[in-house]
From TrEMBL:
This is L-rhamnonate dehydratase. The keyword Metal-binding applies. Mg(2+) binds at residues 214, 240, 268. It catalyses: L-rhamnonate = 2-dehydro-3-deoxy-L-rhamnonate + H2O.
Length: 392
């Protein structure tokens, strides 16, 4: 049975948390003196919002079929991504069969290649692709994981990202990933503070619990190598996104120079099969961490995951809630998943994309079984103040 054709594509912008999870109020751990590439400027060191990390807001993409069924997705990209979706990408969907995902992706990517390739444009493409998968699932009355080949395990197992790995351990997670607070510009004193924080957490969680540092592109090779070796004493499991995503050569050397047993991870801000091919062929890391809302969507993540699998590299997607969960559960080289602790003090489990999704599942005791609701299994919360900046 052919599916109903696509009638309309709409793009909205929403402020206040959700998929743009950096868009939080004051006093949140996610904006508490976290090391970034901008930390070299003292005036931008204390708050990431000070340099504009939340300037874009959430992008919501809705795709409606002629029978009235609506698929949707949320990602980041805000107004400029909404412009690209409405003015450029919508033409490749409206009037089309929604199952033509490969052709639609190809046309979205190559029609924007002259100004796209990575970053914002690929965020927009990802949002459309995720909404398309949600629509197909809803039209077929199947969850997305079933469209992707089905579950390879019964439930998801999570580590937690946030300021309190000690509390995450009590909540049943298998590990805790902390933001690194001090970058190279804060010198030896900053390095000492970073290690003290790790030591404090190690003392609280015991020997076996995983502890990781997320460095959010803030370091240079020398600092990252030094941090890795000193952190090895406290059993750091992995060092994440230590360098600029453009510095493939640096990642290659960091992986070579890292202490035995410590994993080098990256890819959160990488995009497409071509970007991940660089990371994989140059042997830059032990785990790739694509964000399905930023790397090109499900259609592209299939290709990225297969490349990683062929190299024996794990693929543990960055955050992204249900959009990651439906993928991870279908993949042998994604044995666990990330959960972002979005409670301001990282002291309780709350839905990652709150308040934008209705029915967003959360781990209980660090585990989650996915239900069989169609699509990604969530609905759009229409009470969040949807703004459509470029109606057609
Ligand atoms: Mg990260």
């Amino acid at each position: 049975m052919p599916l109903p054709l696509i009638k309309a594509v709409r793009a909205y912008v929403v402020r206040g948390g959700g998929a743009d999870y950096h868009d939080q109020g004051e006093g949140h751990w996610i904006d508490d003196h976290i090391a970034t590439p901008m930390s070299r400027y003292p005036e931008y060191r204390q708050s990431r919002q000070s340099f504009g990390i939340n300037v874009l807001g959430t992008l919501v993409v809705e795709i409606e079929a002629v029978d009235g069924t609506i698929g949707f997705a949320v990602t980041t990209g805000g107004e400029p991504a909404a412009y690209i979706v409405e003015k450029h990408l919508a033409r490749f969907l409206e009037g089309r069969d929604p199952t033509e995902v490969e052709k639609i992706w190809d046309q979205m990517y190559f029609s924007t290649q002259y100004y796209g390739r990575k970053g914002l444009v690929v965020n927009a493409i990802s949002g459309v692709d995720l909404a398309l998968y949600d629509l197909i699932g809803k039209l077929r009355q199947e969850p997305v994981y079933a469209l992707l080949g089905g579950k390879v395990r019964d439930e998801l197992t999570f580590y937690a990202t946030g300021a309190r790995p000690d509390l995450a351990k009590e909540m049943g997670f298998i590990g805790g990933k902390m933001p690194l607070h001090h970058g190279p510009a804060e010198g030896e004193e900053g390095l000492r503070k970073n290690l003290e924080e790790l030591e404090t957490m190690r003392n609280r969680v015991g020997e076996d619990f995983w502890l990781m540092f997320d460095c959010w592109m803030s370091l240079d090779l020398n600092y990252a190598t030094k941090l890795a070796h000193k952190a090895h004493e406290y059993g750091l499991k992995w060092i994440e996104e230590a360098l600029s995503p453009d510095d493939y050569w640096g990642y290659r050397d960091l992986k070579k120079n890292a202490p035995p047993g410590m994993l080098v991870t990256t890819g959160e801000h990488e995009a497409t099969r071509w970007g991940f091919r660089m990371l994989l062929e140059m042997e830059c890391c032990d785990i790739i961490q694509p964000d399905v809302g930023w790397c090109g969507g499900v259609t592209e993540l299939i290709k990225i995951a297969n490349l990683a699998d062929s190299k024996g590299v794990m693929m543990i997607p960055h955050g992204s809630s249900v959009y990651s969960y439906h993928f991870v559960i279908t993949r042998h080289n994604s044995p666990f998943a990330e959960f972002l602790m979005m409670a301001p003090k990282a002291d309780e489990v709350v839905p990652m994309f709150h308040p934008q999704l209705i029915g967003e599942p959360v781990p209980v005791n660090g585990k989650l079984k996915l239900g069989d609701a169609p699509g990604f299994g969530v609905e759009l919360n229409r009470d969040v103040g949807l703004h459509r900046p470029y109606p057609r």
